[in-house]
Amino acid sequence: MNDDPEAPARRDQVEGEGAIRGTGRMEAFADAVFAIAFTLPIVEIVLPAIEHDGAELGRELAALHPQYGGYLLASAVIGVYWVQHHFSGAIFRTTGHWFVIATTVFLAAIGFIAFPARVLTEHFSDVAARPAAAHYWVVSLSILSLAWLVKWTVGVLQGHIDARLEDGYVDRLTRNFRIVAVLNLLAAILVFVNWQAGLALSAILTTWLLLPPETPRYITLAPVIEGDS
Amino acid sequence: MNDDPEAPARRDQVEGEGAIRGTGRMEAFADAVFAIAFTLPIVEIVLPAIEHDGAELGRELAALHPQYGGYLLASAVIGVYWVQHHFSGAIFRTTGHWFVIATTVFLAAIGFIAFPARVLTEHFSDVAARPAAAHYWVVSLSILSLAWLVKWTVGVLQGHIDARLEDGYVDRLTRNFRIVAVLNLLAAILVFVNWQAGLALSAILTTWLLLPPETPRYITLAPVIEGDS
Amino acid sequence: MNDDPEAPARRDQVEGEGAIRGTGRMEAFADAVFAIAFTLPIVEIVLPAIEHDGAELGRELAALHPQYGGYLLASAVIGVYWVQHHFSGAIFRTTGHWFVIATTVFLAAIGFIAFPARVLTEHFSDVAARPAAAHYWVVSLSILSLAWLVKWTVGVLQGHIDARLEDGYVDRLTRNFRIVAVLNLLAAILVFVNWQAGLALSAILTTWLLLPPETPRYITLAPVIEGDS
Amino acid sequence: MNDDPEAPARRDQVEGEGAIRGTGRMEAFADAVFAIAFTLPIVEIVLPAIEHDGAELGRELAALHPQYGGYLLASAVIGVYWVQHHFSGAIFRTTGHWFVIATTVFLAAIGFIAFPARVLTEHFSDVAARPAAAHYWVVSLSILSLAWLVKWTVGVLQGHIDARLEDGYVDRLTRNFRIVAVLNLLAAILVFVNWQAGLALSAILTTWLLLPPETPRYITLAPVIEGDS
Fold this sequence. Notes:
4 copies of one chain form a homotetramer. By secondary structure, chain A is an all-alpha fold. Chain A has helices spanning 24-39, 57-62, 65-88, 97-112, 114-123, 130-157, 167-193, 195-208. In chain A, α3 packs antiparallel against α5 and α4 runs antiparallel to α6.
């Protein structure tokens, strides 16, 4: 068995399994989308006009706090998902047509999330706008969570998981991602009943993703020793 | 023969064949252009003004649906082409001067396509603007399809295909890409006769690219066995 | 011991150490964020309006010098940090959950820094605005410096340093980064007392990062020779 | 001798040579900057306003031709330089502090070039603006050409060239890059005397970069055979 996780899945060995490649380039594309989604929101912070009274610049820069908040919130959510994605890159070993498509759909959700982050932070100072801003944000986050679960599930079902991982390990990850997605959907319903509660549940779920995932467990092919019980 | 698809094509072994390298860095550049083209359209979605009545925020966010449509349409087309490009990365084994240039031309078309997507979706609600929006979109898509065919053909003619692939396999892919490009050109003519029909044909062709490509077929160098006929 | 710095840290060998991978993909994500932060400021330079008197174009282009300055200043700071980051990529050998998170926080600061660069350069021509612009810029740079130190420290404490490096070498780097961060914090205090002095200290510290870092020192496992004292 | 162009230059073997690494990550950073500079100009093409008469959409889209021109011109110049950069990635084998810094300076010029491209194409329809637009464009291109020569020269002088290349081969490349840079500087002087002539010379020089570079020549270490003359 070849130990290079990218090369072997690419050639004759897998003939018959379709357009399967290692995960290298799919990860690279995903990393680039994450990086752009992460960095792009800076262009939305508007420089105080140069024509204004210069002595007011300090106050004007401080007044941009909702825009800084939007940048930070988008960075935090995209960053947390990137950490999960980086981790899962060691769990998958190959890619395939439908897995690549599911990843692309998930990445479209990642690319979008900075917009709801701005809706929430920039409109939050207006009390009348808060419920709608919360609805929009929590629903967007639950779609993102669902897109992640779909991508993960397609990868698992299409057999792209590293075969050397213990089944129990992969099953536990799948269960965790399902729980998070279901709770996010609940938050997306709850937010229409009580926007504060929905927002709080959603925030807890995203923070939860910050916790380190369980260490991968590999099947250790112990040598069979004669006479050993 | 070296099994690492990038290293061997780079050095002394290919002296005399020009500035040939493995496909790694060309794929990386292309992946980055795809990723940016895919993510950039989010900056075109305009946040409802903070000065507006906050109670209207929900309605204003819903009214952005043509802009969401533009983001989704651009993501879908760029995503579909990225899936094809990711797949073809396993078909090519080296790059060269003219192949790199043809790829760059194709990538300029990828980088442009989000603009026609916005023209179509943002102007579609205006009945008087629909024909022109459809012309623009379908012609742009047919140029993209043609640019893909040119890139593919240059790669094949310059000998960058993995030599271990069956000739018949590569020929079938070439034929498919030609059919799609010719039908896209037909759609670009048809759209000026009947914009609805042209738009429909174009949509079918792009959706068709979602289908998984044929599994690569490799020449299996079977060992010659004495006495075998 | 495997000499490939990415592959070995990824699989069974490190079972039990958590979601540890080689640094390849984390570096790729960081490189992409650096590249976007580096290139994005160009969109902030506003083209002179086409409706203006064409004979004035030369003068109008020259009058954009504060915007060119913002582009150059952001490029310089991001470039200098990228050089440091590129260098440190050879010092670390693995990644882990908290190291990835600390890197993401540092990258959010990198993505932000072009905005303070524009505040400083575009408002500098207004004498009344200079103190506030200097406060904003120097404080932002000191946060960036602190974020770098945090990232470095997390990487070192979590054991991601290449084990073949001499301890003394890593300690000297750590001490240098601490000195730079502390001096940056001093500059961030000084700038409120005397903005010119704070700005000057900050500029010196960033220029200092341009100096080449000390050559890595590796533990040489000399063969034990019999009879050798 | 290790055949992997990236791994060997990174570790103990080169102790004492400073912060030397393979070219992989520097190329990745450069590729990302190229990709962003290449794709970003699309955001500068302004969608015709939705409030306008829809029946005018076709005419309005056609009237955007100077903006399409700016996109195409920027793509062409960045694309041509990327092709050269991709090629030179096979010529260099290691990186070092000053080479990385010179590359960063060159990349800042690449990131900037889309702005002069817009100045030229968007102001060209105004006869009075043409000389200033031509000056700006040709001077910018000559700075880019000079930045390329500086980067190349630093790489060569710091010993980062693949040692297996023939000296004569590298010398011929250096001479070519010097000729192009000097002619670009001449174009930057000529454009102030006669803007049409300066623009024409500059265009010829950039088109010249489209020609395939000379095939790398490697020193072949032929085995010494006894008795062979």
